[in-house]
Amino acid sequence: MKPKTLLGAVCLSLVPVVAIAADTASAAKDAFRMKNDQMMTAMHGVALTGDADKDFVDMMIPHHEGAVDMAKLEIQYGKDPQLKQMAQSIVDGQGQQIQMLKTWQAAHQ
């Protein structure tokens, strides 16, 4: 095979890899944007009462749920092992906190 032909074959073989990476980056960006928008919409939808305890709980639930959603996206799309490990600890820790907040919320309706 001529060097010029070989180079062309190598370049063409990289096109699908680059396309997949671009598709993954686009999917990750879209997913993060969507989850952030959902979290912000939920937080802005909270009717504040002036009761600091109730308002704290009502705001922290969607805030933590958004953090968990974004951490799951890091686990799905991220490459850095330390960040993926941190993301898993966010899923675990904030998942427990969400349950505690919901338990308090149910007892104080």
Give a short synopsis of this structure.
By secondary structure, this protein is mostly helical.
- Percentage of β-strand residues: under 5%
Structural class: mainly alpha
Ends apart, CA distance between termini: 76 Å
The average pLDDT score comes to 86
**How do the helices and strands follow one another from N- to C-terminus?**
HHH
Q: What radius of gyration results from the CA coordinates? A: 22 Å
- The tally of strands reads 0
**How would a textbook summarize the main sheet?**
none
Helix content: over 70%
Shape: elongated
Contiguous helical run count: 3
Described by its quaternary structure, the protein is: single chain
Low-confidence stretches: none
Can you give a write-up of this model?
The protein has 109 residues and is an all-alpha fold. The chain is 87% helix and 0% strand. The chain is elongated, with a radius of gyration of 22 Å.
SSE layout:
Layout: H1 3-44, H2 52-77, H3 81-107
Helix pairs in contact: 1-2, 2-3
